[in-house]
Amino acid sequence: MVYYIRSQEKVPVRFDTQLLDRTLSLLADMRRTVQRGELPPPLQNSYRCDRCSMAGICLPDEVNLLREMDAEKDPNQERKPEGEPEERIRMLLASRDDQVPLYVVGQGKTVRKRGERLEVWSYEEGKISEARIREISKVCLYSSAETTTPAMVELMQRNVPVLHFTHGGWFQGIALGMSHKNVQLRIQQFRWAEDEERSLAIARKIVSGKIKNCRTRLRKYDPDAPPSVLNSLASLSQDAENASNLQSLLGIEGAAGKAYFSRFGEMLKVGEESFSFEGRNKRPPKDPVNSTLSYLYGILVKELFSTLLAAGFDPYLGFYHQPRYGRPALALDMMEEFRPIIADSVAFRLFNKKELKDTDFIKTGIGISLTAEAKRKLISGYEQRMQTEIVHPIFGYKVSYRRVLEIQARLLSRVLSGELSEYPAFIIR
To answer: Mean pLDDT of all residues in the chain?
Structure first.
């Protein structure tokens, strides 16, 4: 007997030989699909995808649209007949878009579990804050901040990652439960990484997208940018698309970075001489602007590290950045196109609105470091940026920058599985 809730009807079902044979045939088809290791094609505008909890992973409308865009580039592919209406890309609904990271910055801080909440305690001040566990996407611990064992176990059981950072903001490692089961994706990732041509195809798109985003930022926020700089970036983005090997691609990216940072200081609307920008430097940064950029890049790479883990990737094996002990190469790959539109954007806002002051920086014998208050300002500005909603330049719906990172990771997995022919870099308008 089958009961239909909407119509409130009961329909008897007869388990005859024909129905049993049909069921066994469908089960056999499912087993063959699993054994082949190939994903079935996404559904075309199916009502079954509406509010499906897996839509944010499957991305049926997005994959179909990108396939159609590829077909338009290929004259041998069949095109949609003229006059046929375009299919609407449905709004992508995140399963838990209300979850946010918990940052614990400063020495002597401990994260404890009490019921359904996490509490942050300080040795000197006692309890200083709390948050519901179900509203936390990740826990980020800086310097000597720590968690109790009950809190760590609870977070592992809920697949909430705990990330550890040094006092200066360098990403040290991650603690996570048993949530990554996508072995087939990692197998494909290793196969692609071993193939120089395939790796280069992805790297070209990443670097070209980064250069285009740098050029767009200059066009919007540097009205006096020389045409020679803008033309050079446009040319270099095209050169990146046609790079013959990774070495030449590195040279193209370096030339683009030099052109972009030559105008970086012009986008800083500050009067203090201490906040001037003469060029990019790091390890350690020699001025407040570079110190701010390095810290923000560190936050962004850890964001992509956990995003890639959630999508089933190995964050240490990239296609552009080469493998090196302890280097999250794939997270660094994915970060490139987002440096100017997330990290650089946060730095400009904090400096131009005078939220960062001279007292937020500590001058040492070898460089510049951030005070605890400055780190809180950077984290707050970063989170504000990540929660900002924009209209997706390809799909047309509103989505937060944090969700954009996950979409890009999912689209990269579709490239490795063969569903998409090329990686679509995220390029702002």
So the answer is: 84
> What is the DSSP annotation of 284-317?
S-SSHHHHHHHHHHHHHHHHHHHHHHHHT--TT-
How high is the mean pLDDT in each 10-residue block of the chain (429 residues)? 86 87 90 75 71 69 75 59 51 57 84 90 86 87 86 87 79 74 85 94 95 93 90 94 93 93 84 71 83 91 89 91 88 94 93 88 82 89 91 86 91 89 90
- Give dist(CA 139, CA 137) in Å, integer: 7
Q: Topology of domain 196-417, per CATH? A: Four Helix Bundle (Hemerythrin (Met), subunit A) (1.20.120)
Instruction: Please report which residue ranges of 108-173 form alpha helices under DSSP H.
Output: 149-157
Phi-psi map region of 8: left, alpha, beta (phi>0 left; psi -120 to 50 alpha): left
Helix (H, G, I), strand (E, B), or coil: what is residue 5?
A: coil
Residue that the structure tokens 């509103």 belong to: 398
Q: Tell me which amino acid residue 116 is.
A: E
The values of phi and psi at residue 364, to 5°, are -110, 180
CB 352 within 8 A of CB 270: yes
pTM: 0.76
Which segments of 133-254 are extended strands (E)?
136-142, 146-147, 162-165, 171-175
8 A C-beta contact, residue 131 and residue 102: yes
Distance CA 223, CA 204 (A): 28
Architecture of the domain spanning 100-175: Ribosomal Protein L15; Chain: K; domain 2 (3.100)
In the three-class reduction of DSSP (H, G, I as helix; E, B as strand; rest coil), residue 119 is classed as strand
What's the distance, CA 43 to chain centroid?
A: 25
Q: What gap in Å lies between CA 324 and CA 193, rounded to an integer?
A: 13
